C-alpha cells in the first residue's frame, strides 16, 4: 500500500528502525503490528506527534531454526543498534505452538491468526532497497478506522486488548466492529 510506504518514508524513526532490522538479514523479516497500524491511525487522526510505541514487533519466518531462543539474540542486536526502542522479535514459524494452532505456512498465514485484523500489517525493506507493505486482511478496514475481531480468535481476547491498550482514548475516531467479517 503506497500511502503507508509514503508515510513511513516521512518518519525518520521508523525508517531508521526498518534499516536496522534489515541489517540483521532475518528470513522474511518484517516490522509489524503497531509499528504500521499506529502510524496509519495517527495520520488519519491528524496527530502532530506520533503516538509512542510501547514495543516494536519484529517478525520473521524460519521453519529450519533449531535454536528456540534465537529471537533473544536478535533482540540483543537490535537493542545494541537502536536502544531507544523496546524490541520484540518472534519467529512466526514457532508461534503456532504457543497459540495452539496448526503450523503456519508463512508470514501472512501467521498474521492471519492475530486478534485484530487491522494489526495484521507489516513492512520491510527488501534487498532491492524497496519498502514492501503486506497485510493478511487487506488495508481497507485499517484506513476506515475500524478495529475488527479475527474470527480465528476468542472474542474475549479481542475486547481485552482494546481495553488494555487504550486504543479508543488514543484514537477516538476508531469504531469497534461487533461481529466477525
UniProtKB/TrEMBL annotation:
<protein>
    <recommendedName>
        <fullName>Nitrate reductase</fullName>
    </recommendedName>
</protein>
<dbReference type="Pfam" id="PF06042">
    <property type="entry name" value="NTP_transf_6"/>
</dbReference>
<dbReference type="InterPro" id="IPR009267">
    <property type="entry name" value="NTP_transf_6"/>
</dbReference>
Amino acid at each position: 500500500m503506497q500511502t503507508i510506504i509514503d508515510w513511513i518514508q516521512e518518519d525518520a524513526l521508523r525508517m531508521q528502525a526498518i534499516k536496522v532490522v534489515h541489517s540483521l538479514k532475518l528470513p522474511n523479516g518484517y516490522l509489524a503490528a503497531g509499528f504500521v497500524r499506529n502510524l496509519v491511525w495517527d495520520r488519519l487522526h491528524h496527530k502532530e506527534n506520533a503516538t509512542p510505541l510501547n514495543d516494536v514487533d519484529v517478525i520473521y519466518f524460519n521453519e529450519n531454526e533449531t535454536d528456540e531462543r534465537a529471537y533473544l539474540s536478535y533482540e540483543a542486536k537490535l537493542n545494541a543498534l537502536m536502544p531507544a526502542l523496546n524490541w520484540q522479535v518472534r519467529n512466526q514459524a514457532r508461534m503456532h505452538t504457543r497459540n495452539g494452532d496448526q503450523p503456519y505456512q508463512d508470514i501472512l498465514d501467521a498474521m492471519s491468526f492475530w486478534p485484530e485484523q487491522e494489526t495484521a500489517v507489516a513492512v520491510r525493506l527488501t534487498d532491492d532497497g524497496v519498502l514492501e507493505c503486506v497485510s493478511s486482511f487487506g488495508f481497507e478496514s485499517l484506513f476506515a478506522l475500524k478495529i475488527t475481531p479475527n474470527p480465528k480468535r476468542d472474542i474475549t481476547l479481542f475486547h481485552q486488548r482494546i481495553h488494555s491498550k487504550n486504543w479508543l482514548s488514543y484514537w477516538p475516531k476508531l469504531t469497534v466492529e461487533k461481529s466477525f467479517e
